[in-house]
Design goal:
- This protein is mainly alpha-helical.
- The protein has one domain.
- The protein is built from six helices and no strands.
- The protein has helices at 3-40, 55-78, 83-107, 111-133, 152-159, 166-190.
- Helix 1 runs parallel beside helix 4 (111-133), helix 3 packs antiparallel against helix 4 (111-133) and helix 3 (83-107) crosses helix 5.
- The protein is elongated and about 70 Å long.
Length: 196
């Protein structure tokens, strides 16, 4: 076997193992860039950020999916009859549903699905982070043109007497999201001996 054949074989082996991680890298980079700009410069970068093509299409689908899940969470947890849980329900379901998908992939040993599930969980934490960090300023536009008094994280933090910690809570959520992203990228290391 020549050196070029050996290099080609190693490259193919590398791509078979790491293709999903390589595919995720641009999305992870841009979503972290978006959250950095939103928290450091202007919260409107959370909703007005230009992802390059084709990542803009991926972002649109993922963000729309999470918005629908978020709104469904208010309805679902609202049926329990507790106002605090109704308000928290949007962000809570936005985290819990991706975690359920992750759990399904983990139980069924779907490692590529597990990688993308961690990516979804991480992005969901980043999405909730911007909402939480906006708690006191209440600048983000709300669905349906609702007023500032309807801001979930403003109401939650006021009820917990923690409004001044909105940015700290947002940054904590960002760190959880980054941890999920790192796990997503390094799943091939954790499951080296499997091809699924």
């Amino acid at each position: 076997m020549t050196d070029s054949d050996q290099i080609k074989k190693q490259a193919i082996s590398f791509l078979k193992k790491w293709w999903a991680s390589l595919l995720m890298l641009p999305f992870i980079f841009y979503s972290l860039h978006q959250i950095y700009w939103a928290l450091n410069y202007n919260i409107f970068f959370a909703v007005n950020y230009s992802y390059p093509f084709p990542l803009d299409i991926v972002y649109l689908f993922v963000d729309t999916f999470l918005l629908i899940v978020h709104e469904a969470g208010h309805t679902f947890f609202g049926m329990l009859g507790f106002r605090f849980l109704t308000i928290l329900g949007g962000s809570l379901l936005q985290i819990l549903l991706p975690l359920a998908i992750l759990g399904f992939c983990w139980i069924n040993r779907k490692y590529i699905g597990l990688q993308f599930s961690y990516l979804l969980v991480g992005f969901s934490w980043l999405d909730v982070a911007t909402y939480a960090a906006d708690g006191s300023a209440r600048q983000l536009p709300l669905i349906g043109g609702l007023g500032k008094e309807s801001h979930d994280w403003y109401n939650l933090l006021v009820r917990m007497n923690a409004l001044e910690y909105d940015l700290t809570i947002g940054i904590s959520f960002v760190l959880i999201g980054i941890l999920c992203y790192l796990i997503a990228l390094f799943i091939p290391v954790l499951y080296q001996n499997t091809s699924r």
